[in-house]
Amino acid sequence: MSFGKRVVATKIELIKIRRSMQISKMVHKILDDKREVLLKKIDEMIDEANKARADIWDPLDDIYKAIFHAYLSLGTATIQSLSSSTPPSINVDVHIKRIVDVKIPTLEISSKKEVQDLTYGFADTNSSVDQATKLIKNILPGICKAAEYENAIFSLAKELEKTQKLINALEYVIIPQYQDALSFIKSTLEEREREEFVRLKKVKAVIEKKG
Fold first, then answer.
1. What is the mean pLDDT of residues 51-69?
2. 15 to 2, 9, 19, 172: CA distances (angstroms)
3. pLDDT of 4 over the 70 cut
4. What's the CA gap between 11 and 5, in Å, rounded?
5. Could you tell me if residue 123 is inside a domain?
6. Domains in the chain: how many in total?
7. Would you say residue 4 lies in a domain?
8. Per-residue pLDDT tens for 32-48?
Protein backbone atom coordinates (compact mmCIF):
# COMPACT_ATOMS: atom_id res chain seq x y z
CA MET A 1 0.00 0.00 0.00
CA SER A 2 1.34 3.40 -1.01
CA PHE A 3 0.19 6.09 1.38
CA GLY A 4 -1.41 9.11 -0.26
CA LYS A 5 -2.81 7.02 -3.16
CA ARG A 6 -6.34 5.74 -3.55
CA VAL A 7 -6.81 2.24 -2.16
CA VAL A 8 -7.84 -0.39 -4.68
CA ALA A 9 -10.74 -2.36 -3.17
CA THR A 10 -9.82 -5.92 -4.13
CA LYS A 11 -9.42 -9.11 -2.16
CA ILE A 12 -5.73 -9.29 -3.11
CA GLU A 13 -5.20 -5.77 -1.77
CA LEU A 14 -7.09 -6.74 1.38
CA ILE A 15 -4.69 -9.65 1.96
CA LYS A 16 -1.65 -7.42 1.31
CA ILE A 17 -2.80 -4.76 3.75
CA ARG A 18 -3.62 -7.34 6.42
CA ARG A 19 -0.07 -8.69 6.12
CA SER A 20 1.36 -5.16 6.24
CA MET A 21 -0.74 -4.45 9.32
CA GLN A 22 0.61 -7.57 11.06
CA ILE A 23 4.19 -6.60 10.19
CA SER A 24 3.61 -3.05 11.44
CA LYS A 25 2.30 -4.35 14.76
CA MET A 26 5.29 -6.71 15.08
CA VAL A 27 7.70 -3.83 14.38
CA HIS A 28 5.81 -1.69 16.89
CA LYS A 29 6.24 -4.41 19.54
CA ILE A 30 9.98 -4.69 18.80
CA LEU A 31 10.43 -0.92 18.98
CA ASP A 32 8.38 -0.71 22.18
CA ASP A 33 10.60 -3.37 23.78
CA LYS A 34 13.67 -1.49 22.56
CA ARG A 35 12.34 1.73 24.08
CA GLU A 36 11.90 0.05 27.46
CA VAL A 37 15.44 -1.35 27.36
CA LEU A 38 16.83 2.05 26.36
CA LEU A 39 15.01 3.74 29.24
CA LYS A 40 16.38 1.16 31.66
CA LYS A 41 19.93 1.53 30.31
CA ILE A 42 19.73 5.33 30.48
CA ASP A 43 18.63 5.13 34.12
CA GLU A 44 21.56 2.81 34.84
CA MET A 45 23.98 5.13 33.07
CA ILE A 46 22.67 8.15 34.97
CA ASP A 47 23.32 6.32 38.25
CA GLU A 48 26.81 5.36 37.09
CA ALA A 49 27.51 8.92 35.89
CA ASN A 50 26.43 10.34 39.24
CA LYS A 51 28.74 7.92 41.04
CA ALA A 52 31.62 8.73 38.69
CA ARG A 53 31.13 12.47 39.18
CA ALA A 54 30.91 12.05 42.95
CA ASP A 55 34.19 10.11 42.93
CA ILE A 56 36.11 12.96 41.30
CA TRP A 57 34.81 15.96 43.30
CA ASP A 58 36.95 15.40 46.43
CA PRO A 59 40.13 14.62 44.46
CA LEU A 60 39.55 17.73 42.32
CA ASP A 61 39.20 19.78 45.49
CA ASP A 62 42.50 18.35 46.75
CA ILE A 63 44.13 19.13 43.39
CA TYR A 64 42.98 22.75 43.49
CA LYS A 65 44.31 23.10 47.03
CA ALA A 66 47.69 21.59 46.10
CA ILE A 67 48.01 23.84 43.06
CA PHE A 68 47.02 26.86 45.16
CA HIS A 69 49.73 26.08 47.70
CA ALA A 70 52.22 25.53 44.87
CA TYR A 71 51.43 28.99 43.47
CA LEU A 72 51.86 30.54 46.91
CA SER A 73 55.15 28.82 47.65
CA LEU A 74 56.80 28.80 44.20
CA GLY A 75 55.23 31.75 42.45
CA THR A 76 53.33 32.13 39.21
CA ALA A 77 56.40 32.22 36.96
CA THR A 78 57.71 28.87 38.20
CA ILE A 79 54.33 27.16 37.95
CA GLN A 80 53.77 28.50 34.43
CA SER A 81 57.25 27.32 33.44
CA LEU A 82 56.46 23.85 34.79
CA SER A 83 53.11 23.78 33.01
CA SER A 84 54.71 24.77 29.70
CA SER A 85 56.92 21.69 29.89
CA THR A 86 53.93 19.42 30.45
CA PRO A 87 52.37 17.80 27.35
CA PRO A 88 49.04 19.51 26.50
CA SER A 89 47.35 16.17 25.87
CA ILE A 90 47.32 12.59 27.12
CA ASN A 91 47.10 9.31 25.29
CA VAL A 92 43.67 7.71 25.57
CA ASP A 93 42.74 4.34 24.09
CA VAL A 94 39.24 4.36 22.61
CA HIS A 95 37.27 1.14 22.24
CA ILE A 96 33.70 0.62 21.05
CA LYS A 97 31.02 -1.40 22.81
CA ARG A 98 27.37 -1.81 21.88
CA ILE A 99 24.43 -1.12 24.15
CA VAL A 100 21.04 -1.92 22.55
CA ASP A 101 22.85 -1.79 19.18
CA VAL A 102 24.14 1.72 19.94
CA LYS A 103 27.88 2.24 19.53
CA ILE A 104 29.34 3.60 22.78
CA PRO A 105 33.02 4.65 22.99
CA THR A 106 34.89 3.48 26.09
CA LEU A 107 37.91 5.47 27.22
CA GLU A 108 41.06 4.17 28.86
CA ILE A 109 44.17 6.10 29.80
CA SER A 110 47.12 4.74 27.85
CA SER A 111 49.51 2.65 29.92
CA LYS A 112 52.52 3.70 27.85
CA LYS A 113 55.55 4.63 29.92
CA GLU A 114 55.79 8.22 28.68
CA VAL A 115 52.41 8.99 30.18
CA GLN A 116 53.61 7.98 33.62
CA ASP A 117 56.90 9.89 33.59
CA LEU A 118 57.24 13.24 35.34
CA THR A 119 57.96 16.14 33.00
CA TYR A 120 59.85 18.27 35.54
CA GLY A 121 62.81 17.95 37.88
CA PHE A 122 62.68 17.99 41.65
CA ALA A 123 65.19 20.79 42.22
CA ASP A 124 62.85 23.72 41.61
CA THR A 125 59.63 22.21 42.98
CA ASN A 126 58.15 21.18 46.30
CA SER A 127 55.70 18.66 47.75
CA SER A 128 52.66 20.67 46.63
CA VAL A 129 53.60 20.21 42.98
CA ASP A 130 54.35 16.52 43.52
CA GLN A 131 51.02 16.04 45.29
CA ALA A 132 49.09 17.86 42.56
CA THR A 133 50.88 15.82 39.87
CA LYS A 134 50.11 12.54 41.60
CA LEU A 135 46.47 13.48 42.25
CA ILE A 136 45.96 14.59 38.64
CA LYS A 137 47.46 11.34 37.32
CA ASN A 138 45.23 9.31 39.64
CA ILE A 139 42.07 11.21 38.78
CA LEU A 140 42.40 11.00 35.00
CA PRO A 141 40.83 7.49 34.70
CA GLY A 142 37.88 8.70 36.80
CA ILE A 143 37.40 11.76 34.57
CA CYS A 144 37.51 9.54 31.48
CA LYS A 145 34.95 7.20 33.05
CA ALA A 146 32.63 10.11 33.89
CA ALA A 147 32.97 11.41 30.32
CA GLU A 148 32.27 7.92 29.01
CA TYR A 149 29.01 7.69 30.96
CA GLU A 150 27.97 11.21 29.94
CA ASN A 151 28.53 10.39 26.28
CA ALA A 152 26.68 7.06 26.66
CA ILE A 153 23.67 8.87 28.13
CA PHE A 154 23.64 11.32 25.22
CA SER A 155 23.95 8.55 22.59
CA LEU A 156 21.25 6.39 24.20
CA ALA A 157 18.94 9.39 24.58
CA LYS A 158 19.40 10.19 20.90
CA GLU A 159 18.55 6.59 19.97
CA LEU A 160 15.55 6.72 22.31
CA GLU A 161 14.29 9.86 20.55
CA LYS A 162 14.64 8.19 17.15
CA THR A 163 12.89 5.06 18.41
CA GLN A 164 10.04 7.11 19.88
CA LYS A 165 9.55 8.92 16.56
CA LEU A 166 9.24 5.57 14.77
CA ILE A 167 6.76 4.35 17.38
CA ASN A 168 4.71 7.54 17.01
CA ALA A 169 4.72 7.18 13.22
CA LEU A 170 3.42 3.62 13.54
CA GLU A 171 0.82 4.48 16.20
CA TYR A 172 -0.54 7.70 14.73
CA VAL A 173 0.08 7.44 10.98
CA ILE A 174 0.92 4.05 9.51
CA ILE A 175 -1.29 1.67 11.51
CA PRO A 176 -4.34 4.03 11.45
CA GLN A 177 -3.98 4.34 7.65
CA TYR A 178 -3.87 0.58 7.32
CA GLN A 179 -6.96 0.34 9.55
CA ASP A 180 -8.80 2.92 7.43
CA ALA A 181 -7.79 1.09 4.25
CA LEU A 182 -9.01 -2.23 5.65
CA SER A 183 -12.34 -0.72 6.67
CA PHE A 184 -12.75 0.88 3.23
CA ILE A 185 -11.93 -2.34 1.35
CA LYS A 186 -14.18 -4.47 3.57
CA SER A 187 -17.14 -2.12 3.27
CA THR A 188 -16.62 -1.81 -0.50
CA LEU A 189 -16.39 -5.57 -1.00
CA GLU A 190 -19.46 -6.13 1.19
CA GLU A 191 -21.40 -3.54 -0.82
CA ARG A 192 -20.36 -5.24 -4.06
CA GLU A 193 -21.47 -8.60 -2.70
CA ARG A 194 -24.86 -7.16 -1.76
CA GLU A 195 -25.22 -5.59 -5.21
CA GLU A 196 -24.19 -8.87 -6.84
CA PHE A 197 -26.66 -10.79 -4.69
CA VAL A 198 -29.48 -8.42 -5.67
CA ARG A 199 -28.48 -8.63 -9.35
CA LEU A 200 -28.43 -12.42 -9.24
CA LYS A 201 -31.88 -12.46 -7.61
CA LYS A 202 -33.24 -10.25 -10.39
CA VAL A 203 -31.63 -12.44 -13.05
CA LYS A 204 -33.09 -15.53 -11.41
CA ALA A 205 -36.51 -13.91 -11.25
CA VAL A 206 -36.38 -12.99 -14.96
CA ILE A 207 -35.29 -16.51 -15.91
CA GLU A 208 -38.06 -18.07 -13.81
CA LYS A 209 -40.62 -15.68 -15.32
CA LYS A 210 -39.53 -16.58 -18.86
CA GLY A 211 -39.60 -20.27 -18.00
1. 90
2. 15, 11, 6, 22
3. no
4. 17
5. yes
6. 1
7. no
8. 999 999 999 999 999 99
